[in-house]
């Protein structure tokens, strides 16, 4: 018998899954889509996956602005972002203070959960995980709450007291959570979900022809996330390297 987020999948009952994600970066949404595509490979009568952009739901007038500001911050001031990231990695005073602030109302999410009546809620965004945990703390929902950590990290913003299960990408990530005090029974090593298309086998020669790549040259695939945040100096260095003749770039990377 298969299981999805602590809920047994049987042939006599459709499982309703609510996936909460957000557009702060592209990885959170990609993981949500991967979960839906994997579920689609099961019988549609068994699992129904609904994806909701949490940021758009709770802050429809500001989510585009906040997403743009966040990406510009990471792109142009990476040092300050990295500093705050490290300062809040552990669940200490600063992290607890930031996590205690409610930047948006929980009412839209509570209403949506009441409307959907999911069997399990899966969050791929730290803010969504925090909101679901808070709603469970208030006793307003009792379905399992699963958090998919979309990086190999134990950052405190992912960790919340009423999360029932954490899906992590590796043994190392699990050990980090254990050191943070998360019980082993609440951690499952699933790998970071990727779309089923990446599990398929492809003909390399045909792919090189399709994308106009030299059949003999060394080809590099750069993956800089959904926003292509790779230093342009690295890109130029690879383009000028004698040992490579082709360069494949993933997602939205553009040299400056």
Automatic annotation (TrEMBL):
One of its GO terms (biological process) is glycolipid biosynthetic process. Keywords: Glycosyltransferase, Transferase. It holds the Pfam family MGDG_synth. The keyword Membrane does not apply. The keyword Glycosyltransferase applies. One of its GO terms (molecular function) is hexosyltransferase activity. This is Diacylglycerol glucosyltransferase N-terminal domain-containing protein.
């Amino acid at each position: 018998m298969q299981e999805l987020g602590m809920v047994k999948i049987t042939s006599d009952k459709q499982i309703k899954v609510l996936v909460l994600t957000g557009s702060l970066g592209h990885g959170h949404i990609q993981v949500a889509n991967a979960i839906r595509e994997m579920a689609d490979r099961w019988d549609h009568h068994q699992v129904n996956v609904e994806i909701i952009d949490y940021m758009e739901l709770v802050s429809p007038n500001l989510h585009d602005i906040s997403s743009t500001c966040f990406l510009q911050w990471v792109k142009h001031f990476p040092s300050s972002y990295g500093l705050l990231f490290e300062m809040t990695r552990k669940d200490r005073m600063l992290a607890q203070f930031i996590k205690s602030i409610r930047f948006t109302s929980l009412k839209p999410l509570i209403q949506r959960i009441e409307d959907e009546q999911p069997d399990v809620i899966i969050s791929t965004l730290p803010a969504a995980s925090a909101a679901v945990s808070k709603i469970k703390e208030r006793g307003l929902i009792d379905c399992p709450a699963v958090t998919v950590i979309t990086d190999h990290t134990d950052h405190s913003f992912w960790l919340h007291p009423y999360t029932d299960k954490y899906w992590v990408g590796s043994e190392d990530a699990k050990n980090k959570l254990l050191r943070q005090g998360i019980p082993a029974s609440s951690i499952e090593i699933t790998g970071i979900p990727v779309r089923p298309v990446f599990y398929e086998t492809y003909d390399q020669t045909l792919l090189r022809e399709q994308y106009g790549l030299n059949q003999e040259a060394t080809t590099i695939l750069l993956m800089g996330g959904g926003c292509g945040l790779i230093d342009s100096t690295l890109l130029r260095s690879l383009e000028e390297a004698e040992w490579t003749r082709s360069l494949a770039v993933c997602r939205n990377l553009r040299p400056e």
